[in-house]
Specification:
β19, α24 and β20 form a beta-alpha-beta unit. Strands 1, 2, 5, 6, 7, 8, 9, 10, 13 and 14 form a 10-stranded mixed beta sheet that branches. The protein is built from 27 helices and 29 strands.
Length: about 850
């Protein structure tokens, strides 16, 4: 037989005809009542399929379906789910004239049954789509459908990780072939390495949002091309560049084949940057020259970077680019040198850097937390060489999490019973969530412990299944799982689950094993650590860390008190963030771009113990957790030792005493107060509805408006801006500014500051520049960290003020233009002053995007 498997599927009863529709929409991934419909048909099969409704419906017994179709209670829940689902997906758009946003990402983490994600980037992308659906945005996603996706993990007793790749039948996934009106499967072609590579298109429904996924596993393709979408982040550099070409160029062609014209193109990480050159090709085909086309494309493109280290940005050798992309470059009709220049990073010549391609082809750029925005601005500073890094175009929008996905259902039920009925629609309302403080402590603690008990039961069952599959003894399993007791959820439990990249320092607390053993084995204040995570198959240092933890948990003093849970996925992640008491995160600062797992824990009332990096640096207050200040030490060993010491001290002096300070109601009143504050503080500030609101108002709408402005009247604005930038760049080396009258060394309050500067402008006009005065207070020191000053903030801040020079009617004898300042000092004190000049045009998206500035 060609296929050794025979599948016999049941007939869906007429009373339940829409179950397949519910299984096909990823709405089920965050709507627990929908998932319950499938789980209740066969709980064991639900577990065996990994929560896969489509596969369950093909394998469940006919008797189970028939019984459900006659069960009045089940039918009532089914009708309620359909009513909720229909109302949700049929709700009108938030705004009928909102620009369509096309969101491109190499991975999406919607649900564990849909394994086309590897980690935080994918989960964030999945949450972004879900929140866009909740917000009724005009939004679509584009990605790749991987035949194998990321690997499943098994770890032997020696701690050796084994990566296993499983082929996934698309019939098992929540996707459908995207058909044209004539019923033919929609395909697109992209020329790669001299061949036309075909990609068929699948559609995933994420509530109201459609996500289109390209798949090159087509019989028309050569074997090497069929493998392009075989494995997420798999293969060599040749495979990676072909994946990224297919994502960027092929994905754009899918959008066009659907007849859509997005107002905004969002690149979620640099993997999708080839969409920029496809948009360039489109604009040049309309008759635009290269430079105006680039201005038009960049105006409507948005780039989010998630990587805080230069080594994490994809870069390909020029030979690899010209080999795989040469036909496209020739069709574009620009010199190869100019094309390669689009992705040139000055510090790393000879490579085609995807992040630099994204920076050159977008005008809105952001990191994913305040610190990460600053790190990214410095990392990319040579893109705008004369601009201070704190003022260059890289901003930030701090990540959030999709609360309906990661808030445990028991908490949702608790909120339904104790909060106003519209709490789900008030996720961004900071004042609303203060109501949690007034809820009865006992009832709140019982809910928290119920969630923890469910986590312990699930984790224990998972470990038992693992030991059984590996043929390990039941006695050993009982010893390892003795603290995973759902009937006794009173042991302080710490969770650490994430990629085992070395900078995340999973083994930081293992540095002092005797001290750790004393903490774990205190009979009065027991402590349990739950670890989970995968190391990339090529990351040998990461696998070594995993090996150390796995071996440690088998030592007598640690067995049953440190538990490693293999094959970390979204399901295990949801269990842990909802049920552990403290979420531990100790990355090397500032390398944690955002770190959203800690947000998920806080949303469930759990406290964070984390290095002050990523989102936690913005969220931290002493009443919601513990913040570990990064140690400023050049020696990594000394840094790790000092930060580990701070974490040990936090456990010994604060966390353990606080948790075990039990009152007559068998809980710590102060712990409950902090748990409530964790929810109330984090839910409204760090959820994805707030995040997509920030994108919509701060990035998407401005980008769409800017593109419309540049595209009007046959792209007159794009042409004018491109010509002006060329003229400004050519003239800038010869622009000279000199001070005509010096500033007084001191002056009294109320006296106006009067300054004159003369500027030789070469081929520029006075209207082509701005001359600016800046004063940063030196004494007294500012009471808070100063945000970056930008010219469009023109005004006064605490300890910092600026003012624009105006053009005087007269000129200097040598023809230099004269600019004058007549300003009243904002406050008293000592100030460091600066006068600077930079090119200016009304069509600029960001005042410093040209990257040119001079100062006195």
């Amino acid at each position: 037989m060609r296929n050794p498997y025979l599948e016999v599927s049941p007939v869906i009863p007429r009373a339940l005809t829409r179950l397949p529709e519910l299984a096909a929409n990823l709405f089920f991934s965050w709507h627990r009542p929908t998932r319950a419909l499938f789980e209740d048909l066969d709980r064991e099969l639900w577990k065996q399929t990994g929560g896969n409704g489509r596969l369950l419906l093909r394998c469940v017994s006919q008797n189970a379906l028939d019984a459900a179709s006659r069960d009045a209670s089940y039918l009532g829940r089914y009708a309620q789910v359909l009513e909720t689902f229909d109302a949700y997906v049929r709700a009108p758009p938030l705004s009928a004239d909102a620009p369509l946003v096309a969101y491109f990402c190499a991975e999406y983490g919607f649900h564990e049954s849909f394994p086309i994600y590897s980690g935080g980037l994918g989960v964030l992308a999945g949450d972004h789509c879900k929140a866009a659906s909740d917000e009724r945005m005009n939004f679509l996603g584009v990605g790749l459908l991987y035949g194998q996706g990321f690997f499943t993990q098994s770890v032997d007793n020696d701690g050796v990780q084994f990566a296993q790749y499983v082929e996934h039948d698309p019939r098992d996934l929540p996707v459908e072939p995207l058909r044209q009106e004539n019923g033919v499967w929609l395909t697109v072609r992209v020329r790669i390495t001299g061949r036309d590579v075909l990609a068929r298109v699948w559609k995933a429904e994420v509530g109201r949002v459609a996500v289109y996924l390209l798949d090159t596993n087509c019989p028309e393709n050569a074997a090497v091309d069929r493998d392009i979408t075989h494995r997420l982040y798999g293969g060599d550099e040749s495979t990676r560049i072909r994946q990224e070409i297919m994502l960027g160029v092929g994905g754009t062609r899918v959008v066009r084949a659907l007849g859509l014209n997005p107002g905004v193109w969002h690149l979620n990480e640099g993997h999708a940057a080839f969409l920029i050159v496809e948009l360039l090709r489109e604009h040049m085909a309309r008759g635009l020259a290269f430079e105006p086309a680039l201005e038009a494309v960049a105006a409507g493109c948005v780039f989010t970077t998630h990587t805080p280290v230069a080594a994490g940005h994809d870069a390909f050798g020029h030979d690899l680019v010209t080999t795989h992309f040469g036909d496209f470059i020739r069709e574009l009709g620009v010199p190869i040198e100019r094309f390669l220049e689009l992705a040139h990073a000055p510090a790393v010549p000879g490579l085609f850097n995807m992040t630099r391609l994204a920076l050159n082809g977008t005008r809105h750029v952001n990191g994913v937390s305040r610190i990460h925005g600053s790190v990214s601005a410095r990392l990319c500073a040579d893109q705008w060489p004369q601009i201070p890094p704190e003022e260059n175009p890289v901003g930030y929008i701090t990540n959030g999490v999709h609360v309906p996905t990661f808030l445990h259902q028991t908490w949702a039920d608790f909120f339904d019973a104790n909060l106003p009925t519209d709490w789900r629609e008030r996720l961004r309302d900071v004042e609303f969530w203060r109501v949690l403080d007034s809820l009865p402590d006992e009832r709140y603690w019982q809910t928290a412990q119920s969630v923890k008990s469910q986590m312990l039961a699930s984790v224990r069952e998972r470990v038992q299944r693992e030991y059984q599959q590996k043929g390990l003894s039941p006695a050993r399993c009982r010893h390892v799982t003795r603290l995973l007791d759902p009937a006794q959820p009173n042991v302080l439990t710490i969770g650490f689950a994430r990629r085992f990249a070395t900078y995340k320092r999973a083994a930081l607390l293992l540095r002092d094993r005797p001290r750790l053993a004393r903490l774990l084995n205190d009979p009065e204040r027991p402590l349990l650590f739950l670890f989970a995570g995968k190391a990339h198959p090529a990351d040998e240092p990461g696998k070594a860390v995993l090996r150390e933890i796995k071996q440690l948990m088998l030592l007598p003093e640690f067995v049953g008190r440190i538990v490693f849970l293999e094959d970390y996925d979204l399901q295990l992640g949801r269990w842990l963030v909802s049920g552990v008491d403290v979420w531990l995160n100790n990355p090397i600062a500032p390398l944690e771009a955002s770190g959203t797992s800690g947000i998920k824990a806080a949303v469930n009332g759990r406290l964070n113990l984390s290095v002050l990096d990523g989102w936690w640096a913005e969220a931290y207050t002493p009443d919601i957790g513990w913040g570990i200040p990064p140690v400023n030490a050049r020696d990594p060993e000394r840094r790790d030792a000092l930060e580990a010491e701070l974490i040990y001290e936090a456990f010994e002096q604060e966390i353990l005493p606080l948790y075990y300070a039990r009152n007559s109601h068998e809980h710590s009143a102060e712990w409950v107060r902090r748990s409530k504050r964790s929810m109330a503080s984090v839910i409204p500030r760090f959820n994805t509805r707030r995040m997509v609101y920030d994108y919509r108002t701060g990035v998407y709408h401005p980008a769409a408006q800017q593109y419309v402005k540049l595209a009007a009247n046959n792209f007159a604005g794009a042409k004018a801006l491109a010509e002006w930038k060329q003229r400004a760049r050519q003239a800038w080396p010869r622009v000279v500014m000199r001070l005509v009258n010096d500033a007084p060394p001191d002056m009294m309050r109320g006296v106006r500051l009067k300054l004159r500067v003369a500027v030789q402008l070469d081929a520029l006009q006075p209207s082509d520049v701005r001359v600016e005065f800046i004063a940063r207070r030196h004494l007294p020191e500012s009471s808070s960290e100063l945000p970056p000053l930008t010219s469009y903030d023109n005004g006064v801040r605490d300890g910092l003020w600026s003012a624009m020079f105006s053009l005087a009617p007269e000129r200097e004898p040598d023809g230099a233009a004269v600019f004058v300042l007549d300003a009243l000092p904002a406050e008293c004190g000592q100030f460091a002053t600066q006068i600077r000049i930079y090119p200016w045009h009304e069509l600029l998206t960001h005042p410093f995007e040209v990257g040119l500035m001079k100062e006195l």
